[in-house]
Every structure is written in C-alpha cells, then in structure tokens.
Amino acid sequence: MNRQSVRTFEVQASTGRRAVRGNGGRALLALVLGALLLLVTACGGGDGKSPAQREKQEPGAADTKASQAVVTVAPKNGAKDVATSGTLKVTADKGKLAEVQVTDGKGNEIEGKISADGSGWEPSHHLASGTTYKVHALAKDAEGRASAQDTSFTTLVPKNTFIGDFRPENGSTVGVGMPVSFRFSRGITSPEAVERAIKVTAEPSVPIEGHWFGNDRLDFRPEKYWEPGTKVTVKINLNGVEGRKGVYGKQSRTVKFTIGRSQVSTVDAKEHTMEVVRDGKTVRTIPITAGAPSTTTYNGQMVISEKLKVTRMNGATVGFGGEYDIKDVPNAMRLSDSGTFIHGNYWASAGTFGSANVSHGCVGLRDQRGAGSKSTPAAWFWNGSLIGDVVVVKNSRDKQIAPENGLNGWNMSWEDWKK
C-alpha cells in the first residue's frame, strides 16, 4: 500500500464533528462506529435496565446476599484445657444446622446428633483428654443460603487418673459362666458416666447388663449363661471420663473373647459326688470331699477364675491360723476371692473321696503329689476345664456364696442384677 492510498480522519475538538477524507476513511469510520455501538449495547444490558431490575424479573438469578444463619461453637476457637464432658456444643441462630463434623487429631470422627429442630448439636459421648479437636459446622437460613464455622480446641491433660483391670483377657476362650469384670484403681463416684463408657455386645446378640459391687467393681453378664460359640466384644472408652472429681480415665481399647463349649459341674456335698456335664451330656461323675462340718463349703453357682497347676495354700491367709500350710497343692482352680478352690488332694486316704467331707471349705478330688499324673480325677478335671466354667455346690450346710465373692454374680436374680 502506498502512502497516498492511506487516509485518516480528523476529530475537530471545537465542534465534536469528524472530517473524513477518502473512501478508505469512510469504511474505517463505519467499522469503528459499529464497534462502539456494540460496546454501548453490552454495557447497557441491551434493554436500558439496571442489573437489579433484571434480577427481579429473571427467575433463578443468583442470590448474592449473605446468609442470615449464625453458627456458634463452644468452646471458643483455640481454647485450651477444655473439660471432656458438657462443653462441646454447636448452635444455629436464624437458621438450621445442616452439617456438623468433629474430628480428633487422628482424623477419627466424633459421634453426635443434630437436634430435631436443627438448632443444636452435641456429641454422643465424652471427649478424650489431652486431644485437639477440629469442628466444621454449616447452617442454612430460610432461603437456603449457607453459613459455616471452623474452629479447634484442646481438652485438658488430667493430673489424676484411674484405670480398670478387666477380665477375661483379649483373645481368650472362656466358659459359659464368665462375666466381664472390671476392678477400678480408684473408687468411682460417677458410676453412670463410667458404665456408659464401656459397651459390651455379643454375637449372636443377647441383652447384657452391668452391675456395681461397691464403688470400684463393675461386672457385665447376660440373664443366663452364655451360649457356646458366642463372640463377645468389649469397647472400653474410659479416656477422658471423670470417674470422680478431678480423676479421669485413661483407657481406650477394644477387647474380644469367645465362649467355648459348655461345662457345668454340680457338687453334691451330701452325696460326696461331682457330676460333670459338658454340652448337655454327663461325661463323668467324680467322688469328692467337701468342707467338714465345722468348715463347710459355700452353696451356689461359682465360676472358675484362676487355674494353677501347683500352688501353696496357707490357712493363715484365709482366717484359719496355722491349721494347715500345704506348699504343693496340685491342679487347683479358684472359685472365690475368699479362698474357695476345687483342687487335687494327695494327703487324704483314697477311701475319703466319695464318703466323707474333711476339707476346710474347698472341694477336693483325688490326686498325686506334684501334679505329674494325667490319669487322676483332679488332673482330668483340671485339664478339661476353662476359666469361666461353672461349678455348682448344693446340699452343703453352709450359706449361699455372696455374688461379689469371686465372679459369682449368677447368684443374683436378673431383676436384682439390673438394679
């Protein structure tokens, strides 16, 4: 293109008119005016109406107004030394909660429930001590507009703690009479809180209830003996539970055990016999010796809580002074905390078993010294028994054993147990 073919237009400032020279300039002017017209049309919406006017006329247009819902989380963001119970609460004002998520430092979500009216949320159980929690809460107002709150806080680290020594052991196979038994290291003054933190379930399912013996022991059992093969799960969530003022639990774990075959052995102190019934069938009737007339054996249902191949039995430890001290009692199994055992006896004559009661309250079975034989009645019974098997004593001249004396809560009615 030569210089002569180039044409320009001039804007005369004084009049605002444009002077155009040449055909090329006219074409260029038309293009510029067209572009300006498009720009003006786009900026004006094309209909001369404001955005607010068009928003009112167009259904489904985006609502840019802020949500009226207000979410409040207690404790406040960044709080330290927060109590583990009764402090975490999420509320919504001018709206309803739509989502609440609380997680600990490991990402585990804390169970909770939004109230029916959507105004609040609280955790289903206490929090763990010495733990940082994150809270994410979202609420919506009447127009469906969302408002969120994200906070974090840390619970207290207790100066005083307690634990529960429990039975049976994790992974064990036990007899049908075995309860779940906790012995706490400190006296408990908030039993409801502690009991809520221990959940015992069974498969197949069966109702299971807890019962307190004093302020430091809590046992769980079903109404009747467990069914053989039952799988029992114990979830211990004591970490952060205030068992007594200023004293907090520090255990959090899951324990599982299995119920083995059924074995219930019945000692008839009058007849001097013990009938061993396994899975509903009598497998053996064994001659025994029970407590002498002056030192009778307790009646009632007793659960084997300990098995000892050889042990020492000293009368001084159970209130009998120096009447006996046998350092090598064979095949012994504990039936009570007060010293009742079913055990092997090698010092009485063979004719004693099945004919006379001569013990200091225990149930004796014929045995050999050293527990080396597998053929004696005591050895046979010891080898075939499980922790949790039941031994029932009847027709003794003594009283019924106390439910708290050993793992012997079966001597309480179900109604009394649930109280």
TrEMBL record:
Taxonomy, top ranks, is:
Bacteria, Bacillati, Actinomycetota, Actinomycetes, Kitasatosporales
The UniProt entry, under InterPro entries, shows:
Big_10 (IPR041280), LD-transpeptidase (IPR050979), LD_TPept_cat_dom (IPR005490), Transpep_catalytic_dom (IPR038063)
Instruction: Determine if Heme is one of this entry's keywords.
Output: no
Annotated protein name in UniProt: Ig-like domain-containing protein
Q: Which residues form the active site?
A: 343 (proton donor/acceptor), 362 (nucleophile)
Cross-referenced PROSITE patterns: LD_TPASE
What is an example of a Pfam family matching this protein? Big_10
Keywords noted in UniProt: Acyltransferase, Cell shape, Cell wall biogenesis/degradation, Peptidoglycan synthesis, Transferase
Q: Which domain of life is it from?
A: Bacteria
Cite the L,D-TPase catalytic domain residue spans from the record: 263-394
The residues the entry assigns to the signal sequence are: none
Q: Indicate whether Transferase appears among the record's keywords.
A: yes
- CDD domains to which the protein is assigned, alphabetical: LDT_IgD_like_2 (cd13432), YkuD_like (cd16913)
Region Disordered, residue ranges: 47-68
- Pathway info: Cell wall biogenesis; peptidoglycan biosynthesis
